[in-house]
Amino acid sequence: MNSTLFAMIKVVLYFAGVVVLSFVVRFIWQNVFKLIARKTHTELDNMIFEYTEKPVSFLVIVVGFYFIMRDLAKDQFMNGSFVLQIINGVFYTAAVVVVSLFIYALLKAILDWYAQEKALKAGIVVQDFIPLVKRLIQAVILFISIMIVLGHFNINITGLVATAGIASLAFALAAQDSISNMIAGFLIMVDRPFRVDDRIELADGTMGDVLEIGLRSTKILSFDHTVIVVPNSEIAKAKITNFGYPNPKVKIRQVVNVAYGSDIVKVKKILKEICQAHSDVLKDPAPDAYFMEFGESSLNVLSVCWVSDYKEKFRITDELNMEIKRRFEEENVEIPFPQRDVHVRTIPPKKS
Predict the structure, then answer these.
(1) Could you give the CA distance from residue 247 to residue 266 in angstroms, rounded to a whole number?
(2) CATH assignment of the domain containing 221
(3) Are 160 and 288 in a shared domain?
(4) Is residue 184 a part of any domain in this protein?
(5) Both 211 and 276 in a single domain?
(6) Which whole-number Å values give the CA distances from 47 to 35, 110, 142, in the listed order?
(7) pLDDT of residue 256
């Protein structure tokens, strides 16, 4: 009787010690680790400690209780007890659940940090992407937890694994297009071939500014102020020209045709002076002009200059063309139009 009473007192003391230890760990988590995390340059560690605070506290309690029950199984007064076996199974299940919650909280902190610190600064829309990944992680952790618990109770899980595999295959086949777009969207977000506000051109000639990068599709704002929605799977396979990466600087090429007999040196000088005088044309690299070819009806000269922002290309090109026309008229430089010499030959009628 005395030994039984002593064992019961020992159990109560163990339980009390575990509860106290849980509060101590939570206190340290709040007042030591989180304070240290706030002094770092990143929010990741701070978010990890914040998200895992409760799971760690519960984990200490459950794991402590679980090991107490394992020690009780060695005592004679409860050895082989059916009640002890039930309690042991309950605490084992609880331990698996709490560990799963801790892992999910850790991964959730990393995902939320990525959404706030990385994706937001990069202009990536993750409103659909992050919740989907969270639900996927929840499903995977839940499935693994169930497998571990069932395996602990010696329950055959072969049929369950086979059923899950068949169900996953059926779902993948039914949602093949959606999954393809989601995977492509994930790759676009990770690889970042373009960002929001970048001006891009697809292989089919579609051009515009990236309005939104979603999980299933990318929205492009065309020059007609219409939104073009392109599935991510098509963008992932297409050749993309990005005018905004690595910087918005763009080259303006203008082919100017002048009449045969024009002074090419003078024409090149005029073109360079016009570009150099424009306030939005970059001085480095300096504008230049090149005599390119002898055309059918003209001498073709290429004018090249750089501007700092591709969004100003159309306006600056218009202003340069207006000034080229004015200067050519002022300097008597002729801009020819296509000409053809037609020779009419009269064929005499055949003699009968």
Answers:
(1) 34
(2) 2.30.30.60
(3) no
(4) no
(5) no
(6) 12, 8, 23
(7) 93
Task: In whole angstroms, give the CA distance from residue 112 to residue 117.
Answer: 8
Residues 6+ apart with CB under 8 A from 263: 333
Shared-domain flag, residues 61 and 202: no
β-pair partners for 255: 302
What is the crossing angle of helices 176-191 and 158-174, to 10°?
A: 80
- Output phi, psi for 177, to 5 deg: -65, -45
Do 138 and 233 share a domain, yes or no? no
Claim: this prediction has a pTM higher than 0.70: no
Task: List Cβ neighbours of 257 (8 Å cut-off, separation of 6 or more).
Answer: 295, 297, 298, 299, 300, 301, 335, 336
Over residues 183-210, the mean pLDDT reads 83
Q: Which two tokens stand for residue 329?
A: 């008229």
Note whether residue 339 is domain-resident. no
CA nearest 100: which of 61, 144, 132, 62? 144
Residues 277 and 234 in one domain: no
pLDDT tens for residues 42-69?
A: 777 778 877 888 888 887 877 777 777 6
Together in a domain, 223 and 294: no
Let me know if residue 183 belongs to a domain. Answer: no
Q: Are 284 and 329 in contact (CB under 8 A)?
A: no
Predicted confidence at residue 259, as pLDDT, reads: 92
pLDDT band at 159 (very low <50, low <70, confident <90, very high): low
